[in-house]
Design goal:
This protein has 220 residues and is α/β, with parallel strands linked by helices. The chain is 55% helix and 13% strand. The protein has a six-stranded parallel β-sheet, with helices on both faces. It starts with a strand and ends in an 8-residue tail after the last helix. The mean pLDDT is 87.
């Protein structure tokens, strides 16, 4: 018979905490070594008992679950963390994972899913509840789409576009400064920013880009 895995339950609602303990105690695979009703106590329990896994609520008094994740992962890297929470928002999910949670399980999960989540995390496999994994995927794809659609042109300010247009029309820095009522030094700063943002390295390259974007109708 394999050795039982040591678990800590961190949940501030006593009824739920006792229910989780009864459910997990019924399994021959787990041993509940401690319970915590706030985030600070959860950190102390991990320090004292060195569990294989802590089942951690995110909404707790004294120290919230996210802060507890950060503290536990910085001090006790071997302990796995399975967040057990009602929070389904993408912000909570991504922040918990970023801070080091090994899994994210919603409180509306059934017994079978919870056991599966714990075993997956103990085996070194990340776990996300089905609804959670869909949100993370959607958020990732949306971020990719946003980044992809945001070109170098989109990063230019209106003033930078004004300067780019006048560079394309062969105006010198002082002429651009006088026309836009700014200093020559500011124009030079805008020119430098344009080169960095557009990855262009000469006035002729900026001119060609301005023509390409339709800022000027001048022929090369």
């Amino acid at each position: 018979m394999r050795e039982k895995k040591k678990l800590v339950i961190a949940e501030d609602h006593r009824l739920l905490r006792e229910g989780l303990k009864a459910l997990l105690d019924a399994s021959e695979r787990f041993e509940i070594v401690a319970e915590a009703e706030d985030g600070l106590e959860a950190i102390r329990c991990v320090d004292k008992f060195k569990p294989d896994l802590i089942l951690l609520d995110l909404s707790m008094p004294k120290v919230n679950g996210l802060s507890a994740i950060k503290e536990i992962k910085s001090r006790f890297r071997e302990t796995k963390i399975l967040a057990l929470t009602i929070h389904e928002s993408e912000d909570y999910i991504l922040e918990a994972l970023r801070l080091g949670a090994n899994g994210y399980c919603l409180k509306n999960a059934g017994r079978k899913e919870l056991i599966s989540a714990i075993e997956s995390v103990l085996d070194g496999k990340p776990y996300l509840s089905p609804g959670v994994s869909q949100k993370v995927l959607e958020g990732y794809l949306e971020e990719r789409k946003t980044v992809k659609s945001r070109s170098s042109w989109d990063t230019l300010t209106q003033r930078e576009r004004d300067v780019l247009k006048m560079i394309g029309e062969d105006y010198k820095n002082k002429e651009i400064a006088d026309y836009l009522c700014i200093s020559a030094k500011t124009v030079e700063k805008h020119r430098s920013n344009l080169m960095k943002k557009l990855d262009l390295h000469s006035a002729s390259a900026l001119t060609a880009y301005a023509i390409q974007k339709g800022l000027v109708t001048k022929e090369l």
